[in-house]
Structure prediction request, 900 residues.
Amino acid sequence: MTEIAHRYQGTAVPDLTFPPREGGYPKGHETREEILRAALRILIEEGYRAMSMRRIAAQCGMKLGNLTYHFPNREDLVQALLDAVITSYEIEFANIFHDPSTTPEQRLELYCELVLEDIRSKKTTRLFPELWALSNHDTFVFERVHDLYRRARAPLEDVIAEMRPDLAEPARHDIALFISASMEGLTVFAGYAKPFESRMQSLEAVAARAFLDVVRNFVAPADSA
Amino acid sequence: MTEIAHRYQGTAVPDLTFPPREGGYPKGHETREEILRAALRILIEEGYRAMSMRRIAAQCGMKLGNLTYHFPNREDLVQALLDAVITSYEIEFANIFHDPSTTPEQRLELYCELVLEDIRSKKTTRLFPELWALSNHDTFVFERVHDLYRRARAPLEDVIAEMRPDLAEPARHDIALFISASMEGLTVFAGYAKPFESRMQSLEAVAARAFLDVVRNFVAPADSA
Amino acid sequence: MTEIAHRYQGTAVPDLTFPPREGGYPKGHETREEILRAALRILIEEGYRAMSMRRIAAQCGMKLGNLTYHFPNREDLVQALLDAVITSYEIEFANIFHDPSTTPEQRLELYCELVLEDIRSKKTTRLFPELWALSNHDTFVFERVHDLYRRARAPLEDVIAEMRPDLAEPARHDIALFISASMEGLTVFAGYAKPFESRMQSLEAVAARAFLDVVRNFVAPADSA
Amino acid sequence: MTEIAHRYQGTAVPDLTFPPREGGYPKGHETREEILRAALRILIEEGYRAMSMRRIAAQCGMKLGNLTYHFPNREDLVQALLDAVITSYEIEFANIFHDPSTTPEQRLELYCELVLEDIRSKKTTRLFPELWALSNHDTFVFERVHDLYRRARAPLEDVIAEMRPDLAEPARHDIALFISASMEGLTVFAGYAKPFESRMQSLEAVAARAFLDVVRNFVAPADSA
DNA sequence: AATGAATGAGCGTTCATTCAT
DNA sequence: TATGAATGAACGCTCATTCAT
Prediction:
């Protein structure tokens, strides 16, 4: 396959959160972190198919045997990696809304701004499509990804509840879901190295307008369950 | 990896459009079609990683040697497959707007309805995340996918132009892009076997409201390039 | 493990009978024969544990990939090998009694002579203990081995029936079984390179005496089922 | 490989006799015993090939590191195991003939009875074929096994000497050897879970008859050395 | 057009072993 | 005494590919 040039080759790829092993030494935890980092790097730069045990071991200058010592099989490693990377997103999200803006409208706009900014990062642009593809065939990824999204929608639902206390819970949920999905969709079009990456600024304005309007104007249909 | 149960196991997976080989016999074309169909079936049911030459050959009860006769190497096959599947989507799209409804608002709504209906199909839900993931690392897929989306946005841009002749072309383009991306984003949340598949109906109402409003109300910022 | 010196290192190890593959070329059959021969050689010279796919491939100057082409997995190869080797023993046995000696006593003695002669061969001494060990954990080997022994006992039972028409079938069967088992047991003590290999001649006399006597003198107990 | 069902799954597998380590603590001896027991359990249940260091460690809920602390390498462990298990058989045998029956005929019969009873145990049926197979390729096992058999034949030779003082030593030895080998051979046919396990009772009668007759009637050939 | 045969590289995994803690 | 960490080699197997038939 023809490879897409990597613009920021030497990306640091940080942000991995995973629990230490019971009874394990600090050295071992560091090694496991190095392994997961290398795996993430390959996943981002070359895709899931290229993320083999051997390549990961080679990436972090480690023998294959040691890699399987820390992660007895590939599934363990992949799950640990995806869990760690998703957990780090959850932590990031949890930190976002500790600074309360004034009006709910401002908070909605800020939320979208932060999400769309994240989407433009190489890491997110590359990682999430892989997660979406994997979630189609792997229940663990499926559940972990949608767990993340559920948490990510919570502040959105709060904002909508403030702006539209008249709406029933399902309707609020639908709107939050739509807003969240809508932004995720932009990953493929205006994410890192995507055709409309440069339009992200103006797309943000379009999105903000659409989201504000739909929250304000949405009228639940009679039979909306 | 833990497999997600396939609800409509025996899916037919049709819709593959690809050119006959120059100087090739009809039999050969049929065989190539069978191969691509088998490949697509694996891609949809088990993901890109499982789509090996051997498994494709096995899927269509064919010996490996014959498969490599028709597609000398894997890249040829993958490109032919993705090209064929994307082409079939383009043809489907081209057929959509031959029946012109009355108002542009109705046409916008119909457009969204058709797209969101397609998204709920197993084929589309499974296929597109794979394409998005591949497009991050493969220029051919990248270009082919965005070519498809460009064509898909064309009728959308026409509708927007009718509704908002006052807007400049970049703004219209941004709005069309947003609407398209927005709906694509719903694939992951309300597509086939997704957590909110059952909410697609009401999500469609939310989306329609948001899209109509943004087309009607969008005001280009002063510095929008 | 300390290795026992191989006295007749360059043993030919012939006698493998297995069916040609349907639609396969003669070349392929030859290759499969070469593979099985190499496997048998290793099994005999170094034991079951040493009989790995890689070592077999190396033994017959073949690439591992080609070996797995002909035998998709180890179990297939092992079964094919044991089946072939056991089949060849069955054929050998079937040929033994086509020359009818005069008295049943002479035939019994000839039978024992032939079996004990075979036991002294390197192939049989080495192979059968492996089969016995394997048959403890592998149903295929278990059934195949006891199928062979059942066929091997048939002429024995005929002889006994001739000598002792008064005996009931179960008693005849027990005697045949005892005689057969008795000789097999000598493998470990007086087989190839065994401590009493040189005593085989005189052991044969002891065995012949014991077998003749038991056939002649055995009196079925009252409650013998 | 297809596994043979284990009828008496939770076998205790006792009977391991091995010397304590010089300067070792009692705790260490217990651990080593636990290790050898686990090894023996695997050997019996799954065969020699499955008896790896890792599996042994896992079997006795121990970390690999600790196992290699007690047995620095595999050969040490295997030798210790086989030595211990053979030693325990030797001790068992030594205890048998402390109760002297009256006539040598009765003693011969009792001897056979005890041996054939032991053969029917899962442990013996499973273990000895492994020993026979190993003894073909490993001098230590070879010598240790035949040492055991030599001791086992001693009481047999005494009985024969009593019954046939006229016979020369080689002839007596041959007869004892034949009787011993004969019974060992029954392991494969009428041992634990073997096709004729249920016939062991009547086979014992056949064997007793044959053995008594051969001891009584055997006439050494003129050239018997 | 299709199958059989063979290669060479790579896959995930298990192995026995060594050494630091 | 026991566990954690790491190595290097080998395991059975699958891969894409090439070529003869």
Remarks:
- The first helix of chain D runs from residue 26 to 46.
- Residues 1-13 of chain D have pLDDT under 50 and may be disordered.
- Chains D and A do not touch (no CB pair under 8 Å).
